[in-house]
Amino acid sequence: MAEIPLVLGFDLGGTKMLAAVVGGDFSVRGRAKQKTGTERGNDAVFAGIVDTIEQAITNAGCGLSDIAGVGIACPGPIDMRAGVVLETPNLDLRDFALRDRLTKKLGVPVVLENDVNAGVYGEYVAGAGRGFRHIVGLFPGTGIGGGLILDGKLYRGARGGAGEIGHMVVQVDGRRCGCGRFGCLEAVASRSALAKDLVALAANGEAPIIREKAGTDFLAIKSGTIAKAMEAGEAAVTELVMRSARFLGIGMGNCVNVFDPELIILGGGMVERFGTQYLAVATESMRETGMKRMVEHVKVKAAELGDDAAVIGAAALLRESFARESSR
Ligand SMILES: [Zn+2]
To answer: 159 and 82, same structural domain?
Structure first.
């Protein structure tokens, strides 16, 4: 049997871009990372993408002719059929015809995918989700990203918008969300939501470590700082973190009721830094929210691939698009 050709996975993030040459077994053969510079907009970002891809190929010890295609994980809404990134506020991209531009530049097929979908897919093929076919992925961070693997396939919905679990309403009349509505899961359980509550604690003098490291700017409160405060025994901080875990669990329980998954994967900085108690509290809250006959069978696991999830997922989805074409 011929060896499965190498493909390239790419993660276009708001602060950094990551390219990886991925083998048939989903192992990373070489990678390159670049800060997304202060130069934003379509042309500057495109130049950075090409440069990072070329570096990753060099680092893998191969050439462009060894690469069968490029899968790109993109933030923000994309038009998958046209291969266009519609809008990303962080990178100042607008109607960016990334697929066709990159195909022309590199001479290989290119596919685009939403970054959270790519991350969940990466965990499905090569991480915490291996061996499962029904998975809900949730990534609490600045917002809460969600993705769905249903019956072994990435589920995108009618217009590519499926999986916006972060905007499931879990507290009627709760805090205002970035989307303009009230009480969405991400408005109560994201790191940003938690940081807004911690600012009040810091101002009250109940969270000295947070006050010292970040002051009262909620944008400066990172997961690592919050973890340090918990480790130092700041009880009020731990209480708020566990409150946010309980809200996350309500969202997870609702997902169980709708999708009957075997597994929920939780990933991102909060899950990595807040330890087993965070996961345990979220899981317990999920079991209280979901219907018993389904929820008692659901496993909850932390994501395993970290930053590699999206590049591996994008590479895997590109391979799938090849398989679809050859079976036509
Ligand atoms: Zn919302």
So the answer is: no
The rounded Å distance from CA 193 to ligand 1 centre is 12
Gap from CA of 275 to ligand 1 centroid (Å)? 26
CA of 190 to the centre of ligand 1 (A): 11
Range of the domain at 21: 6-115+307-326
Specify the pLDDT at position 175.
95
- What is the CATH classification number for the domain harbouring 281? 3.30.420.40
Looking at the chain, the whole-number percentage of residues with pLDDT higher than 70 is 98
144 and 98 within one domain: no
Q: Does pLDDT of 3 surpass 80?
A: no
pLDDT, position 76: 80
Whether 81 and 194 map to the same domain: the answer is no
- Please report the DSSP string for 82-124 in residue order: TTEEEEETTTTEEEE-HHHHHHHHHSS-EEEEEHHHHHHHHHH
Contacts of 38 (CB under 8 A, 6+ apart): none
Residues near 128 by Cβ (< 8 Å), separated by ≥ 6?
263, 265, 301, 302, 303, 304, 305
Ligand 1 centroid–CA 238 distance in Å is 25
* C-alpha 113 to ligand 1 mean position (Å): 21
Pairing of strands 144-150, 135-140: antiparallel
Q: How far is the CA of 179 from the centre of ligand 1 (A)?
A: 4
CA 181 to centroid of ligand 1, rounded, Å: 6
Instruction: Note whether residue 263 is domain-resident.
Output: yes
pLDDT tens for residues 68-113? 999 999 988 899 889 999 888 778 888 999 999 999 999 999 999 9
Picking from 92-96, 221-225, 227-231, 255-259, which range would have the lowest pLDDT averaged per residue? 92-96
Domain-located, residue 126: no
**Distance from Cα 166 to the centre of ligand 1, integer Å:** 7
Name the least confident of 40-44, 192-196, 202-206, 290-294.
40-44
Task: Please report whether residue 125 resides in a domain.
Answer: no
State the DSSP code for 4.
P
Interval between CA 175 and ligand 1 midpoint (Å)? 10
| Ligand 1 centroid distance, CA of 55 (Å) | 38
